[in-house]
């Protein structure tokens, strides 16, 4: 039994009378202590999928099909009350912007202990003791002092550490991190990611890491799902997927960032075109207008996820598994 | 690298209570305001001991100027002005502060609820507020007192209801911006209830404009009571309030300047003090501002 198992999830938005599907047929799962990275551009549906798991889709958005199972229980249609029981104590979330996700007029201590006192029923003294432990664990020195400070007195990296401590505070089994390092500079990004991944592994907490940077997750995730235009186009264990990326979009993502194994003066190769408007219907594979290998068949029918070279890919003309990226770029 | 610890900043923030004191030390105007308000409060409490005369005792010494016997003179019925102002302090201060407290509690709650929940709740609350907004505050107070009768409690309720719309509008507009903040979403992902999110996470971020409105409203409330007294709709003819004293003296101002100046001065000093205190509270409660 997976900790979280999402099957054939579809998310719809109501546009007046009509209904438009933003996320199609998304399936992924996370085991305790495991990290799953969902990678994709903005508008690919990765954040929506996370919000659907939290039960916090904004008004007008709804789960159109599929099931979300948490510890084997179908929570897809739980009511607000039952969802609220899960939030914080079972499933917690870390947001993108550490500068704005902390309440500016509450002390760090108040914000860390609030959840524990409410969800775990700790008294002030116990909660403070646990808050100090948590801050120590996320690498903040002099935690007792920090508890009395306000968010504006902390740097961006420290705030994100505090956010992680808050997410852990009510002992959840699953953490969803929505681009937790986008607002931070590169060295801090690496610190925060390895910290998050390590803490989740140590505590047996499942982690869903949502990001647009395929390169950055290679080291921290055991499983990767690449999303494009509301569909998962390639998924599998990180090892298998990075060894032989077969979807042209995944390839495009990898060759659009600098690599150590290609000549230094080789220009980066961006993916031509722009991601599709989520509200626009594209027949067939959603990537075909931007794909160099597109054939007539690509515009006809949506490709299914198929098992190839140790992982799954949804493409009519996948890249041969033995062609490396450096060969392709050369 | 991930285990690198970060050293704390050198400046450590004092707790909120001492923050108030720290900022007070550097704020002359707030000190002035607190002292003046405290003096008035004491004068109100100890009026029976301080006043030389019964405030309603009439003598033949009418409209006498400033003298040792009557430091602030007497009015048209020969009543000692200083004694009347001292007794009036109690009622005027009480009305000024309690009406604002009541209006703030009702108005802010309505505004928070309307702004946070939106939809039909917002529509119902705000259409009522619009309706009230369409009338001048004073007309509403006059109407309420005219219907329910005079008396201390009715005057307080009437004036505070007239102020509810201002607080509701401010609280609602603050809530509309604040509810989009990511820390409000974050509170929801931690499984906090909506009322908790509203009162523990949104309200404290909205205090600054509410305090400013409250201090301004205290002055309007004291003046509002004065206006009601002026129309004979005040607390009670036998209870001296600053407004009533001012209203009584109005007809004789050309002959006895002290009848207008001294009660007016009392109102002005209290209003000024409360504004100074309000400015200080606004700054001191804003944790993002540096304490000196």
Automatic annotation (TrEMBL), chain A:
The keyword Transport applies. SMART domains: AAA (SM00382). Coiled coil: none annotated. Residues 4-254 form the ABC transporter domain. It is found in: Cell inner membrane. GO terms for cellular component: plasma membrane. It is a peripheral membrane protein. One of its GO terms (molecular function) is ATP binding. Pfam families: ABC_tran, oligo_HPY. Belongs to the ABC transporter superfamily. This is Peptide/nickel transport system ATP-binding protein. It comes from Celeribacter neptunius.
TrEMBL record, chain B:
It is a multi-pass membrane protein. Belongs to the binding-protein-dependent transport system permease family. Pfam families: BPD_transp_1, OppC_N. Its main location: membrane. CDD domains: TM_PBP2. SUPFAM superfamilies: MetI-like (SSF161098). GO terms for cellular component: plasma membrane. This is Peptide/nickel transport system permease protein. Residues 89-278 form the ABC transmembrane type-1 domain. PROSITE patterns: ABC_TM1. It comes from Celeribacter neptunius.
């Amino acid at each position: 039994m997976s900790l979280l198992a999402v099957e054939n999830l579809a998310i719809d938005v109501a546009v007046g009378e009509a209904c438009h599907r933003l996320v199609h047929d998304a399936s992924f799962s996370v085991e305790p202590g495991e990290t799953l990275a969902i990678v994709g551009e903005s508008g690919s549906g990765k954040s929506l999928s996370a919000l659907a798991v939290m039960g916090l889709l904004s008004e007008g958005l709804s789960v159109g099909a599929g099931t979300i199972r948490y510890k084997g229980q179908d929570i897809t249609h739980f009511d607000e009350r039952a969802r609220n029981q899960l939030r914080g104590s079972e499933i917690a979330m870390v947001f993108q912007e550490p500068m704005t996700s902390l309440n500016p007029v509450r002390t760090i201590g108040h914000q860390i202990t609030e959840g524990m006192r409410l969800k775990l029923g700790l008294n002030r003294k116990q909660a403070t003791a646990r808050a100090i432990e948590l801050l120590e664990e996320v690498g903040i020195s002099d935690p007792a002092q920090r508890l009395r400070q306000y968010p504006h007195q902390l740097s961006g990296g420290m705030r994100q550490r505090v956010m992680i401590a808050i997410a852990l505070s009510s002992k959840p089994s699953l953490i969803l991190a929505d681009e937790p390092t986008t607002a931070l500079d590169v060295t801090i990004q690496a610190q925060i990611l390895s910290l998050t991944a390590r803490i989740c592994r140590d505590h047996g907490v499942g982690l869903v890491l949502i990001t647009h940077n395929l390169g950055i997750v290679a080291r921290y995730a055991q499983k990767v799902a690449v999303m494009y235009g509301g569909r998962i186009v390639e998924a599998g264990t990180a090892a298998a997927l990075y060894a032989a990326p077969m979807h042209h979009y995944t390839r495009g993502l990898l060759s659009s960032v600098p690599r150590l194994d290609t000549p230094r003066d080789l220009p980066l190769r961006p993916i031509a075109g722009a991601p599709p408007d989520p509200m626009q219907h594209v027949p067939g594979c959603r990537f075909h207008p931007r794909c160099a290998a597109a054939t007539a068949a690509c515009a006809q029918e949506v490709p299914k996820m198929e098992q190839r070279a140790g992982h799954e890919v949804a493409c009519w003309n996948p890249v041969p598994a033995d062609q490396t990226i450096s060969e392709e770029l050369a | 690298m991930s285990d690198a610890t970060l050293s704390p900043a050198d400046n450590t923030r004092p707790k909120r209570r001492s923050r108030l004191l720290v900022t007070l030390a550097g704020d002359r105007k707030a000190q002035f305001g607190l002292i003046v308000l405290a003096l008035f409060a004491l004068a109100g409490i100890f009026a029976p001991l301080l006043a030389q005369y019964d405030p309603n005792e009439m003598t033949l010494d009418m409209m006498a100027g400033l003298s040792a016997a009557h430091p602030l003179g007497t009015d048209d019925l020969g009543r000692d002005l200083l004694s009347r102002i001292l007794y009036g302090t109690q009622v005027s201060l009480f009305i000024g502060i309690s009406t604002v407290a009541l209006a703030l509690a009702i108005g802010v709650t309505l505004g928070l609820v309307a702004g946070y929940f939106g939809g039909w709740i917002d529509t119902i609350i705000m259409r009522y507020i619009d309706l009230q907004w369409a009338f001048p505050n004073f007309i509403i107070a006059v109407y309420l007192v005219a219907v329910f009768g005079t008396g201390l409690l009715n005057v307080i309720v009437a004036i505070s209801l007239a102020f509810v719309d201002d607080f509701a509008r401010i609280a609602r507009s603050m809530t509309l911006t604040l509810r989009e903040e990511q820390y409000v979403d974050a509170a929801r992902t931690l499984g906090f209830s909506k009322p908790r999110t509203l009162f523990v996470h949104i309200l404290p971020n909205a205090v600054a404009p509410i305090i400013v409105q409250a201090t301004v409203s205290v002055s309007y409330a004291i003046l509002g009571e004065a206006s009601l007294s002026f129309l004979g709709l005040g607390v009670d003819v036998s209870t001296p309030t600053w407004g009533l004293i001012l209203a009584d003296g109005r007809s004789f101002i050309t002959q006895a300047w002290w009848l207008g100046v001294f009660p007016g001065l009392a109102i002005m000093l209290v209003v000024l003090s409360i504004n100074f205190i309000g400015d200080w509270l606004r700054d001191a409660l804003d944790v993002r501002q540096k304490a000196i």
